[in-house]
Amino acid sequence: MHAAVPHLGIDPAWEAGDPAGLAPEHAQHLAELESLDHELAALYRRGAEVLAGAANPAALDQRRAALLGRERGVITLALGDLPGLPLDERKRRGRGLNQVKRWLAEIEAARRSQLEREAEARAATGLDLTLPGRRPWVGRRHVLAQIQGELLDLFHGMGYSVYTSPEVELEPYNFTKLNFPTDHPARDAHDTYFVRPEVLLRTHTSPGWVRAMEERKPPLRRVFPGRVYRAEHVDATHMDQFHQIDGLFVDRDVSLADLKGTLAAFAREIYGAKIRTRLVPVYFPFVEPGAQMDVACVLCGGTGIEHTPAGEKRCVVCKGTGWLEVLGAGMVHPNVFSAVGYDPEEVTGFAFGMGLERIAMLRYGVPEIRLFLENDLRFLSQF
Ligand code: PHE
What we know:
Bound molecules: phenylalanine
Low-confidence stretches: none
GO molecular function: ATP binding; magnesium ion binding; phenylalanine-tRNA ligase activity; tRNA binding
Strand order of the largest sheet: 1-5-6-12-11-8-7
Radius of gyration: 43 Å
Subunit structure: Tetramer of two alpha and two beta subunits.
InterPro entries: aa-tRNA-synth_II, aa-tRNA-synth_II/BPL/LPL, Phe-tRNA-synth_IIc_asu, Phe-tRNA_ligase_II_N, Phe_tRNA_ligase_alpha1_bac, Phenylalanyl-tRNA_Synthase, tRNA-bd_arm
Cofactor: Mg(2+)
Protein name: Phenylalanine--tRNA ligase alpha subunit
């Protein structure tokens, strides 16, 4: 009597495929087994068909385990039954089972590489729906443009509209009408690039006031953003071009208190609600009185002392003074009003001007002004 070959574990629902394409000798193997043992032939036929019919690698794994698995596979179980058989039967069945095992393993390997080739072909046609999409590269505004936008928003909220004026400016607008007397030493601080004797690259955005006032009568509230130029010796904190925003407020009875209130609002917005400020008298030709506004040092908080693990040392940002100069300001000089045809007995006004690079450097701790112009994305993408 033949011992039954267990068919347990081969799911009757598994779809069948055609093994002929995977194993050219399939028909021959089948005929060989038929003459040897019907049951082995049936096992081989069914096994070959379900391996060929596996639709994907996971199904193939499952079927391989059911047929060829080392512990519970059909072949392994049948081999385990051999010792109970008579010697002749044992030899015949043993040899047959080993052939079935080898041939099924070959079909399984052939089907696996066929599935892999199919997957590659699908990917090559661009139809792999599991591939993550390519993100578009998204740019951003330059850090200085961001700060400029923030300031324009702030001043817009206080009633200022934007006035843009030329970067290549006439000498009188940059200097004379702003009450820089010819040959006055105040011009030395504004050493610039001349295009022709009367035409220069503007050294500040203040010439915009003159143009705005010449265009219309008071009252006037304007901000003047833009790029300015100076023939500076370039180093970590000085560039021969940088950016400013000026502000100008002209009306009847404008006072220094109005200026202080405006500058305090600016400082709170940019440096935080708790920031301490002070005005220090300073000379500028176009304002009287003139002042600079300082804010308490952003690094040491105004103490002038930096606490490091190694002990206390002089604050590097404010150089121990506790204060940082952030802008120039003052009451518009009567000579400037006269130069644009306003009556200095009728109107008063204040003005202020600040550098955008300096604001960015203090806010973000940028140690080197040249970084703003180098267009290195490793720097710019941090903001
Ligand atoms: N225009 C001055 C400068 O660039 C700054 C300033 C503006 C000072 C307005 C006073 C009033 O140095």
